[in-house]
Each structure stands twice: as structure tokens, then as C-alpha cells.
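Record 1 of the preview.
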Amino acid sequence: MAKKTCSRCRKGKTVIDLPYVNQSLCGDCFVKFFERRVQRTIRRNELLETKDKTAVALSGGKDSMAVLTILKSLSYKAPASELFAIIIDEGVPGYRDELVKRGAKYCKELGVPYHIFSFKKELGMTIMEMVKKAEKKGLDMLPCSYCGVFRRQLLNQKARELGATKIATGHNLNDECETALMNFFKGDVSRIARAGATVGVIKDKLFVPRIKPLRETPEDEVLLYTKLKKIPVIKGKCPYSRDSFRTAVNKVTLQLEEAYPGIHYQMLSSIDQLVPILKEHYDTNKWEARVCDCGEISSQDVCKFCQMKKALGLD
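->
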């Protein structure tokens, strides 16, 4: 089938069809469309301030690499701001080690400072060693569960120690919808109440707020953007992701999107309309932060990080 002409410039050949806006765009127009949407998300949700010191949670995958690229381009408009990357190495040979190398190399190319922290050094075990130990102990925990908890805790701790005022993550539109559905299926409506472009139920000096510039951007468009911008990303998934509940939900939402184009945006709109109502019901503004014995903020007396460390014998 012959390629169509770009809906905007009327010159270039299209590289993508966007049925939810009834447009077909060439590479140059798509890049502009993509970057303007991200900038609009940042501006509308007031995600960044002129003197922010922003840490990008850099995994080396397409989403975080795209975020780093865009924030670097915007940093020139705010000379008083600072930007750096934090890379967490969970210790998965043939997967994470390559992502870490690629992420570090790209930071050097962009001139962005970066810091690498590993599970092995910080926790005493790689994620692979944790999986084996959990199996021996007969623990009923999926690898993604404790990996996610450890990653988030280390990311917050290291960002805080490095003086970050914000942590930018690569969560895209698909991620937002999947998370809401997962919480709905689990009956954890209070977590849906925390949804939004900024993550952080309460303000506390121990917690570094997280922002999601790609929240309104579909996953497949992020991939195309990295290709067109020649951003060096590595394809592939963590070997443990096949066990993830998120993977199953992802398949469902992709099938729905294929059958009903634009349904991710409809879902996000529904989520955003529900959040204010749920926040009022669950009174999230009055949630009281506790400090675990480890010195980190928690919603419980003993944080999940410490609970899992104890279960795995990492104390």
C-alpha cells in the first residue's frame, strides 16, 4: 500500500497514523507533535520549576531515554535548573548490564551527569540471587514485587542524598491505564486515588516527588520517537517479566486499543475524573507519614522495603 502524504506539512510521507486525532504524520511532524505534547503535559501539570534539580530514573529503555532526551532539550530554557540521571542495576546478566552500559553512554553523549547504584552493592544480592533465595525459602513473592520495592526505595534514597527536588520517570499512557486497571482488579481503590502526573500523596522531606512527563503518550509512539531521533535503546524484556500481572493486563489493553483506537485516552480521562472524588473519599491529604526504623518514610510502622529484606534474609 502506498504511503500517504503527511496531514500537516502536506509534503513528507507518513510514518504513523494517529486515528485518535485523525492525522497521518511524517517523521519530522511526528517528532514535533510528540515533543509538544510532552511539553504540554509538563506545563499543564506544573511538573517542573525553573530551579528544579531533576533526577531522571534511567533504565536504559525507550521510555526513560526519551524522557532524558526531552528534559535535556528543555533544560536550556531554565539555566538555573539541574538535570542528572540515576541508574539502578538490579543485576540481570545479558539484560540489565547492557541497559546500564547503553544508558551511561547516552548520558555522556548528552553531557548529563549520571550515577549508578547496584542491588549487589546496596543490598548484598543481585535480583537473580534474590529469586533463587526466595525459591529456597518457599516465599510466595513474584520477582517483580520485591524488585519494584527495592528499586523505588533506592531511587528515592539516592535522589534525596544527591539533592534532587524531582524524580522524572518514563511512565507512559499505557502504564497509567494498566496500573489503574491492576489496582481496580485487586480492589485497591485507594491507590487509584493517588494517580496523576505527580506521584506523592504527602509532602515530606524524606520523599522526592516523582513526575511523569510521558503520561499522555502512547507506548508505541515513544518507540517510534526513539527510532526517529536515533536514541540508542535496547529491545527486550526482563526475563522475569513473564510472571508479571502487569504483562497480562498489558495484553488486554493492547487488544482493546486495536479494536477501539483511542481507548487508552478515554481510560485516562476516566481515571483523572475519578481521582478528585476518590481523594475526597479516602482523604489522602490527611494521610500521616511514618518513619521506619531504617529512616525511610512509610505508610506502616515497618516499611515494605524492610519487610522484604527480612523475608529474604538481607538484614
